[in-house]
Design a protein that fits this description.
single chain, alpha/beta, seven-stranded mixed β-sheet
Length: 193
Amino acid sequence: MRVGVLALQGAFREHLLMLGSLGVDTCKVTKSEHLAGLDALILPGGESTAMVRIAAGTGLFATLREHMAGGLPVFGTCAGLILLADRLSDDSLGGYDRLGGLDVTVARNAYGRQRESFTTPLTVHGLDEPVEGTFIRAPQILELGPDTEVLARHDDVPVLVRQGSIWGASFHPELGTDGRIHAEFLHHLGAAV
């Protein structure tokens, strides 16, 4: 299995390291041609405004949408969730192109500023033990479409969701040493990791 990590900005290195610790073949994705031959893609946390501005005019998001429409599984964490959300609660990205594909409404930075970041145990569907969820200027999922399944909640608010092969997390599962969220995503795709 070959998994790409969008490497425009943000925590892409941490995702590459986490996937590597699971024995997964990885590559950085910065151009449309890097999408060829991938079995899945991860969109990391970081600054969503910077990501959409860097991608603007490159054709990367248009090509990625085509791959997603063709069935490419994608997992967006924090800023990656913002890129995947079909709807934002405001136009805080200034009208820049996003990906969409995940039937959720998201509010950017809803968990507070940088100094209000926190880590909390999360009970995740399919896992026996809680996972530490790290929330850094995290987006909040406000609404779910009918086909969007909740895999974890924090204070009764969805923080890990999936719709078919598209997953989204408000938190950063790549921070720390616990690779179970990444492994669950890959298992859901049929990978033996």
